[in-house]
Amino acid sequence: MFAQETAPLPASIPSPEDMRKAGASEGQIKQAMDFLQGANKGQSSSSGSPLGQSSNTQNTQNAQNSQNTQQKLMDVGNKSGQTDNTKQEPSKDSKPNEPVKDDQAKTEFDKDGKLDVRERLVYGKQLFRNGSISFFDHSGNSVAPENYVIGSNDELAVNVWGYTDFSDNYKVNEMGYASGKLIGRVYLSGLTFAQAKAIIKSKLSQVMDLQNSSSDITLSSSRVVSVNIVGEVVHPGTYEIPAINTVFNALVAAGGPNAIGSVRNIYLKRAGKVIDSLDVYKFLFDPAYFKDVFLQNNDYIYVPSVKRIVTIKGEVRRDGVYELKGNENMNALLHFVGGLNTTAYVKNIQFKRIRNNAEVLLDLNLDSVLRAKKDFILNDEDEITINRVPQGVGNMVTLMGSLKLPGDYELKKGEKLSEMLKKAEGPVFDAYLQKAYIIRIKDDLTKEFIPVNLESVLKNPASPDNIVMHEFDVVRVLSKTAFADTFPVTIAGMVRMPGTYNLGSGLTIKDALALVGGVKQDAYLERAFLVREEKVIHLKK
């Protein structure tokens, strides 16, 4: 007999009102209620079901479904608190400083089980996915920059060593003052970290010798602020984070902009007013851009939806999907992609565009646009393709045969045969100058052989044989050796250098033996054989 297994029921499922407050969709609420009713029915019917494999299988599936649904409900509750207090504080379990993976970011904004159609990863969002920007989840794990603004509950550590030894911590109270040994009561709230350090050093220099001592002032602990991150982000909500984080750092905790979130228009709102805006592309492409915008309590970070994106691929340094804003168009896009490859064919680029509810293909002479120092307007969802230049060299002539430097040479407009021969350093000693051939490809791709007198061309550049060369012409210079009569002769047996030789007319057998070094000492000289055209001739000494 098998022991009966029952599906574990959730310890507690929130009411629909609590789940709406937590930010759950109506589809998620319905799914939870359906599960609760089905789980109760399954529990009452399981006691009467027969024991066996089918019952165990059904119970196992119920258990898995229960755990999956509980996990979804816990995720909703964890993200929004499941209470009226919707603040999120990074913990070891949630690990907000870990980058959100692309597949997590995509499924995060599913609605009713359907993926967002614009799930492409726009360039710049990878900063929030791959850990390029750090998130400081502890108040003392970062070195404060000089422009960090001091506020209540910040704590500064002072260390002096050398001629004088001194250490102390100064914490800024709710009134904005820091009090401690040797400095009295100083107001630091609202000052930059650099200004606060200067004031503390000035106070300490009145009571100790800092010129002959070394000193160091650090931000040992930063205050915690409540920041609302809303709009098109992966995990919207309220976060309790150390104030040492900038707007970019805080966005990491929320997973960054989602599939339709902008990376070019990120707004920081304070007391109902926009006090600053941030652009990821300026951070990436402008070396002179430096803006650390630190957060205050109850700040809002708002990420709107993207307005205009274009896709570019082909012969560019970095293809991908890019977001454009304002009056940015083709010139700005080429700057973002790092420019064109050397192999880019810019006389005709292609791009797809949505026009009159249809996708059309358009051609553009980008070369003329760039030469005129103009710009080309790009629309949302344009897809640009830049092809490679056609392969194969066109402006060349091939010189072959009895020349000192045969090969392929550049052909300039109007160059003649004599100029091409100079590039090849002229003919060699055995060149046949009375006749050479220029092989030319005609329009119908047939070959035309043009005979020329090289001797006339070399002596007189004005010769009618010194014709203008065309692309892909082949100049073939003949050799006198091509007209010489030679024949192969094979000498084998007891000779010093047996082999096959190309010999000329008028040669005797005695001459042939001399050419191979003569016969060996132990050669039998009474008889030899001459084989000619399948006939054997017996030779005697």
Reconstruct the topology from this structure:
Layout: H1 16-21, H2 26-46, H3 53-80, E1 87-88, H4 102-108, H5 126-129, E2 155-162, E3 166-171, E4 177-180, E5 184-187, H6 193-205, E6 213-221, E7 224-231, E8 237-242, H7 247-253, E9 266-270, E10 273-278, H8 280-285, E11 299-303, E12 309-314, E13 320-323, H9 330-336, E14 349-355, E15 358-364, H10 366-371, E16 383-386, E17 396-401, E18 407-410, H11 417-423, E19 431-441, E20 447-452, H12 454-459, E21 474-479, E22 487-491, E23 499-503, H13 509-515, E24 527-532, E25 535-540
Parallel strand pairs: 1-8, 7-11, 12-16, 17-21
Antiparallel strand pairs: 2-3, 2-6, 4-5, 7-8, 9-10, 9-11, 12-13, 14-15, 14-16, 17-18, 19-20, 19-21, 22-23, 24-25
Explain what this protein looks like in three dimensions.
With 541 residues, this protein is an alpha+beta fold. It has 6 domains: 16-85; 102-136 and 225-303, Outer membrane lipoprotein wza fold like, CATH 3.10.560; 155-221, 2-Layer Sandwich (wza like fold), CATH 3.30.1950.10; 309-386, Outer membrane lipoprotein wza fold like; 396-483, Outer membrane lipoprotein wza domain like (Outer membrane lipoprotein wza fold like, Roll), CATH 3.10.560.10; 487-540, no CATH class. 23% of the residues lie in helices and 27% in strands. The strands form 7 sheets. A 6-stranded mixed beta sheet has the order 1-8-7-11-9-10. It has a 5-stranded mixed beta sheet with strand order 13-12-16-14-15, with no helix packed on it. Strands 18-17-21-19-20 form a 5-stranded mixed beta sheet. Helix 2 packs antiparallel against helix 3 (53-80). The chain is elongated and about 125 Å long. The termini are far apart. Mean pLDDT is 79; it is low at 1-12 and 42-118.
